[in-house]
Amino acid sequence: MGEQLEGFSNLRTYAEAVDWINGLIPFGIRPGMARIETMMEMLGNPHRRLKFIHVAGTNGKGSTCAFLTRVLLQSGYTVGTFTSPYITKFTNRFQYNGEDIPEETLLALANRLYPIVQEIAATELGSPTMFEVSTALAILYYAEECVPDIVVWETGLGGRLDVTNIVYPVVSVITNIGMDHTDILGDTVEQIAFEKAGIIKPGVPVVSCVQQPEAVEVLRKKAEECRTTLYLAGEKFAFEYTGNRGPYQSFHFSGPFREYDIEIGMKGEYQIANAAGALMALEVLRQYMAFVMEEEDMLKGFRETAWAGRMEEIASGSAPRIVLDGAHNPEGAESLRKSIERHYPHKRLNLMMGMLANKHHESYLKHILPIVDTLILTEPDFRKKMDAAALRDIAEGLKHSYGKPDLQIIVEPDWKNALELLKSRTEAEDLAVVSGTLYLISDVRAALLGQTDSEKGW
Q: pTM for this one?
């Protein structure tokens, strides 16, 4: 277990380990690489022994990671997947071949990290944050416990100063760029693009589906500085929606090496761009890194990819149709509206939403209100929640310009009561949607599926 600090008694249970890691949350999100670099040095730089696919972007990171993981597993590779936030349980963050890290392994690794964290906390660097410790734990797990062929590695926030940027990947992916976390990343598309572009490394190919000309310019400049190839959608590869067949939506992909007709089971028009970006990254691995992937396995992997809380229909007996989608920013709301229109014919649309206090809620509502009949505003069970009454004030201000004439707005701060209200108001031909922060989606999903041991968090 390594040297322990004098007077330190081990964390004894999985619950204690998770409580300790989550107890670091008050240290907040502090962009910068010094603490993670120090931790890695003290552990012998285990991250240098692994191959990573590094995924950044405003929306679609989790889905892109899911596509990459599923196809690589289907092709016979062993895969580590590090993602955040998690939907059901803390261990969801650290997966190996689609399975969560065992609780006893997490406990053992937390005990290795505890004295190191204490030591760093006593210096001018200050205490490592929850996300830094989680990242270090993931690296230890993959480098020393299971040693996968490749790790699918999702950024936490931004890219340039995000602690996941400690790694040197074999390929990088930037899904898209939108207005999110502007309090930390900057409030223009260029500023946010600059932060995301921070994951681009010398000689490491980068794939992106970014569209805004000003963002593309930032990525192009960074790729040129790093003397590497930018595989940009619309330039180096293209994809086109070709329709729905049963539960699948299909698209045609044409890339620099091959063309494919792909079917995906994940709903949502934005999932086509996510799948296309993942496919381009896999093509780079295939073409330049000697990864062997049969076309049949790739097609099967894309078809079978699923991701909780993203346009996920929850079947609950004879109850109404309920779709969960963690759209929480303007781009997410626009995609959600298009996806509902494409995949879910309905008579009335009842939308329940709860948000955190740091988002662009006005722009979000402008996108979604035109198709909503009843809007139920609630609050996630989380310390940074947005007050439901404050959300109502925003919605009321937009109602006449963007809402239907008979739009009903209801405030119910208790999400459990709000969910019952949503169910009771949704008839057989209607559609119920729960949207907003994943902290809300996590709780609602656990309630609908009858999961009692659900944890949640960033």
A: 0.87
